[in-house]
């Protein structure tokens, strides 16, 4: 495992909460090397609880005639989900920023650039292969329309947890009863195709991935005040596990992008084992 720099620890821990859900940068050394090479230098952390994302789906959505459930089903059926390669991280980062924070409507160009820099770095750390493959499994999944357009994305990774601390930077020493658990993060769906089950499909794809890694649960972190997101997750079988009152969230205002404190809820679903009894175990 690469040595971790304590200097980077603070923004990392904020990023945990921040980005949608969660955390961990086992490949810090490689990230810095990569960032240096590409001219993207780690600077002041941009906190972000992307937990908001699902809430924004509802709030920022323009009015459209309600689609019939048949039409919604058709759309979702035609969506394919694939694992993004390292080379596609840039495309996913760009998609995420535009879908999550609004395509140019809310964001000033400078803000978009700042968010993109942070998003790119976060995705590379969590799901990218920089110099060597990650030691713990991770995957970045994208949903594409029949025409090949990206319409959704989500990441899933195995992180180190110590009790209620999800995604701690494990240095091999001083860790208090560490365990490995899978964490879902960075879920976003394009504003044009929301509420058609694509988010659900992405979550289910993460669950399948996690099971293929041999885990029987999936965690995620969500802003406590983001009721639409929490409702969706609870509909999908996720239950509140614990709450962190010292989380942070990224707030984009017309003047700035800033960290704000927020309470984060960790939700968990047990995953049915594959095979004969999976129906009953769910
Ligand atoms: C709560 O969140 C903060 C900010 O990310 C983190 O540093 C801290 O370890 C978390 N605490 C627990 C108990 O999870
Ligand atoms: C997340 O939490 C912060 C602080 O409580 C709040 O201001 C913000 O509106 C929340 N976002 C959503 C979408 O719930």
TrEMBL record:
Example of a GO MF term: N-acetyltransferase activity
Cleaved signal peptide residues: 1-33
Top-level taxonomic group: Eukaryota
Domain N-acetyltransferase per the UniProt entry, residue ranges: 79-256
Keyword list, A-Z: Acyltransferase, Signal, Transferase
Record's keyword annotation contains Acyltransferase: yes
Protein name: Acyl-CoA N-acyltransferase
Native source organism of the sequence: Tribonema minus
